[in-house]
Write a structure and sequence with these properties.
The complex is a heterodimer of chains A (112) and B (110). Chain A contains no helices and 11 strands. Chain A is 0% helix and 57% strand. The mean pLDDT of chain A is 94. In chain A, strands 2, 4, 5, 6, 9, 10 and 11 form a 7-stranded mixed beta sheet that branches. In chain A, strands 1-3-8-7 form a 4-stranded antiparallel beta sheet, with no helix packed on it. By secondary structure, chain B is mostly beta strands. Chain B is built from no helices and 11 strands. The model of chain B has no long low-confidence stretch (mean pLDDT 94). The chains are: A mainly beta (112), B mainly beta (110).
Chain lengths: 112, 110
């Protein structure tokens, strides 16, 4: 299984809602990533987890809260988002120390 | 100066043509270079991964790195309509941080 899966595919939420994005991989990778991609822009790194520990936080606002419950799962908890947070949220994974990152299909988030 | 720069295009070529996509990067210390392909409304797909200088070939795709000019290229031979997508070059900065170019939107016309 060489796939990264993400749920849900689409999410619409209000600014007062709390929701979570989920990511799963079964490639035995020990590094997992969250990226944000706005329309017609490249993906931008948000968080990196290595061995289930947060190793990089690219100064992301606290309304985004990542969680890595185990080596296969990565969550992104969302609370009090703004309309400008509407984007495609991508999860990726790689071997620890590996440079080849494999991406999931993304969750398209719309904040009303 | 951005770490990696890429002409966003768009680029439109006829089917069967050779396509050349290019990026420049700023820091000569970068060692790892990638090309990703992203179809509309999908996640990026890793196409090619090269370390340091030289060429790497995989089927119709060739990735080239010229460290003397800090230039990376992706060539697509015998281009097909199914190759129509956005192509993103990327470098690894520090440990694990993937930094992408702007992406070039490519259309192959039948």
């Amino acid at each position: 299984d060489t796939e990264v899966t993400q749920t849900p595919k689409h999410l619409v939420m209000g600014m007062t809602n709390k929701k979570s994005l989920k990511c799963e991989q079964h490639m035995g990778h020990r590094a997992m990533y969250w990226y944000k991609q706005k329309a017609k822009k490249p993906p931008e790194l948000m968080f990196v987890y290595s061995y289930e520990k947060l190793s990089i936080n690219e100064s992301v606002p606290s309304r985004f809260s990542p969680e890595c419950p185990n080596s296969s799962l990565l969550n992104l908890h969302l609370h009090a988002l703004q309309p400008e947070d509407s984007a495609l949220y991508l999860c990726a994974s790689s071997h620890q120390g590996g440079n080849e990152q494999f991406f999931g299909p993304g969750t398209r988030l719309t904040v009303l | 100066q951005k770490e990696v720069e890429q002409d966003p295009g768009p680029l439109s070529v006829p089917e069967g043509a050779i396509v050349s996509l290019n990026c420049t990067y700023s820091n000569s210390a970068f060692q790892y270079f990638m090309w990703y392909r992203q179809y509309s409304r999908k996640g990026p797909e890793l196409l090619m991964y090269t370390y340091s200088s030289g060429n790497k070939e995989d089927g119709r795709f060739t990735a080239q790195v010229d460290k003397s000019s800090k230039y990376i290229s992706l060539f697509i031979r015998d281009s097909q309509p199914s190759d129509s997508a956005t192509y993103l070059c990327a470098i690894i900065q520090g440990a694990q941080k993937l930094v992408f170019g702007q992406g070039t939107r490519l259309t192959i016309n039948p």
